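A quick word before the example. In earlier lectures we treated sequence and structure as two separate objects. From today on, think of them as two lines of the same record. Here is diguanylate cyclase written that way.
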Amino acid sequence: MSQAAEPSPLCPAQQLSRSGLRKDDPLDQVLLPPLRKPVYILLQDHERAQRLAQQLEFFGLVVQALANAAAFQASIGEYPPSAIIMDVDFNGAGQGLLLAAQVQQGLARHIPLLFFSHHETDTPTRLAAVRAGGQDFLTGTLEASSLLEKIELLTNATQHDPLRVLIIDDSRTQALYTERVLASAGMITRSLTDPIRTMAELADFQPDLIILDLYMPACTGPELAKVIRHSDRYVSVPIIYLSAEDDLDKQLDAMSEGGDDFLTKPFRSRHLITTVRNRAARARHLKARMVRDSLTGLYNHTHILQLLEDCSFRARREQQPLSFAMLDIDHFKKINDRHGHPMGDRVIKSLALFLKQRLRKTDFIGRYGGEEFAIVMPNTALDAAHKVLDEIRRRFAEILYPAQPRDLQCTFSAGVVQMDEGLDALTMASAADEALYRAKHAGRNCVVRVEP
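And the structure line, produced from the sequence above:
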């Protein structure tokens, strides 16, 4: 790896990431390396820095390990990094702190900076790190997947999707006006003037919040709110009534029928935006805690199957392909037995991060249970799904985990199936699980496909 060379037009990390492209995939639907600027790593042990850079590139980052202060200063002037990993003793005892502080001086916006030390450090060293612009501090052994989590936090590489709001109002004019107000605040909106279509629209749009007119010809707002609340999937979606009704008793009665708030027309734009944003953001946060796995942040078993069902419905309606895969880490019990459960957790988190880096934003990844994962791949035929998963499998096997007496390498097996006329969501899950079973019995570290 060059120490301060100009990145090529398509660096190896980007080439690897693009190898995950499906045929006809638009580039904006593919998770290319989220950090297009390089990450600089400066450690006392340059060989260790090079190995760590190589490991991070497996995750799709662009990384440069720099050997000395001169190389660092030359590179940072020409190619500003997205983040810096700096040994406090790089280039000499305590010199990393001084070098980082010197580089940050005069910058209008400080570069995200993480300091590292082989040993536990005292408070003065930590204070010096903070004053040099350090946003985090690691000690002990650096490991690629854990470091990747820190880098993502430092650079805000994980982008949050805009809030989604469904507006149900029989007045097209009012619905469009509400849409414009919320869209100006960066929200994604969809309006519906026929309340009878509400449940189908909910399944398709999956809103974070619903704005509901109180009086409509087909039904009242409270009646529709009750229908929505009959479904366990939407029982926690906030409902805000929006009406010219100014009778407080009627407003309170409506809110007792499945509503969470009441806004009176005409409304102030800022009032609407703030109310919707606060309610929707809080609901999304609570939902994330309910539907995501605490260790990996991936969707849990129940929710990934719900997403498979939703995607199956959409794929049939739009006549698009859909693939579903099940993955399982090989010999996971031996990893726990030989290296301890913390190492097992580290491998699970590492695979979760690797899948998030290597798959598209439009794919859904879940932790199915234990060391087993599930992936829903919309608009993806079987050949493309198999090719992408096999490339991920091959690259994941190259990641090293520091261990004794030698570094640990792990693999996974997978089964993948494509939706066809005879397969509903549950049958697809069963077929993928059977294919995973066959992969295990075929020697592991392979991907088995279920032919249509």
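Notice the following. Residues 301-450 form a domain with the Alpha-Beta Plaits fold (CATH 3.30.70.270). We will return to this example when we discuss secondary structure assignment.
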